[in-house]
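Lab notebook page, bench 4
Experiment: in silico fold of construct C2
Operator: M.H.
Input chain length: 227 residues
Purpose: comparison with the prior construct
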Amino acid sequence: MTQGQVVRRIVRPVVFLGALLPLGVLLLDMATGSLGANPVETVTHRTGFTTLTLLMVTLSVTPVRKLTGIGALAVLRRPLGLFAFLYACLHLVTYAVDQTYLSGLGLSLSAIAEDIAERPYVTVGLTAFVLLLPLALTSTKGWIKRLGAKRWQRLHRLVYVSAALGVLHFVWLVKADLFRPLVFAAVLAMLFVYRLVVGGGRTGSRVRAEPTPSSDASGERRVSLRS
């Protein structure tokens, strides 16, 4: 098999299963009552952690692809980005459920708005989600054509801003035990430096390229939340 076939037939299914594994474990723990004394808090923390993890993995695809020379790995960016967005949605929904439970008034948008305004880490987290939304919506090659390669490229650079805000959200949330958020911060810093030093100025040409469907780079135009 060619590198492209290995990626599409073996690597991509494994990546899909790996991305869905945290959700499967979460659902299993929910079904068996294994979420601890505060289930909503547990779900919130797990979905947030998985969101950040998948964002970092998504941003790592390009460096790994360049270092290994396996261009077909580009096809993993879009699904990884969308999986990150899925967990971000679950994280936001769980937060809304938590606020509903605390208010005791049903779904109270005013209570949620007040909480967002009063707690900076919530404001930062919501901003990170809002920045991810247009990236998920414009992840298809059809949107690349509508926006044009350069504008689409500039838009999708917001993933770095979203990831940085997500890390800041995590830092403010945990307050004391900063090990895990600082690990995310270090990874993001390395990825950002890599983009500036190694990958800067060449991404636009890759988006404009028109590879044939059979080439290993066939997924190059179908990326989401790209690095």
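Observations: The first helix runs from residue 3 to 32. Residues 66 and 103 are 50 Å apart (CA to CA).
Next step: discuss at group meeting.
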